[in-house]
Design a protein that fits this description.
By secondary structure, this protein is an alpha/beta fold. The protein has one domain: 3-Layer(aba) Sandwich (Rossmann fold), CATH 3.40.50.2300. It contains 4 helices and 7 strands, in the order βαβαβββαββα.
Length: about 120
């Protein structure tokens, strides 16, 4: 059993369409002491979540169902919201404008997730 994060803990929006992965990632985020927002599994859901609350960081799957998450990534860049692509693809598979963005490769270890969140939320 893990302790619930403080209500003032940094918020991480989890955008992942595969339910089991989304739930496991959200749980891992909470276990690391952050407040998980979501998970949400669609571009529309992610944009609605961003309309409702500004997270401290976002973990963003590159493909949500049959649609690309580039609209979400564009908004995150525009709003200067820290994020990492959470994907099974390589950085080379991302559109050119996202070169240099952070990429957290699936499957992710707890140590890698912890380090990535620390890097995003400083």
């Amino acid at each position: 059993m893990f302790a619930e994060p403080r209500t003032d803990a940094p918020t991480v929006l989890v955008v992942e369409d595969e339910w089991l992965i989304a739930e496991a990632l959200s749980r891992a985020v909470r276990e690391l002491g952050y407040r998980a927002l979501g998970p949400v599994g669609s571009v529309a859901g992610a944009l609605a979540a961003l309309d409702a609350e500004t997270p401290d960081a976002v973990l963003l799957d590159t493909i949500l169902g049959h649609e690309s998450s580039v609209a979400v990534a564009d908004r995150l860049l525009e709003e200067a919201t820290p994020f990492a692509f959470f994907t099974g693809y390589s950085e080379d598979d991302l559109p050119r404008r996202f070169k240099g963005c952070r990429v957290l490769t699936k499957p992710v270890s707890e140590a890698s997730l912890k380090a990535e969140l620390k890097a995003l939320i400083t």
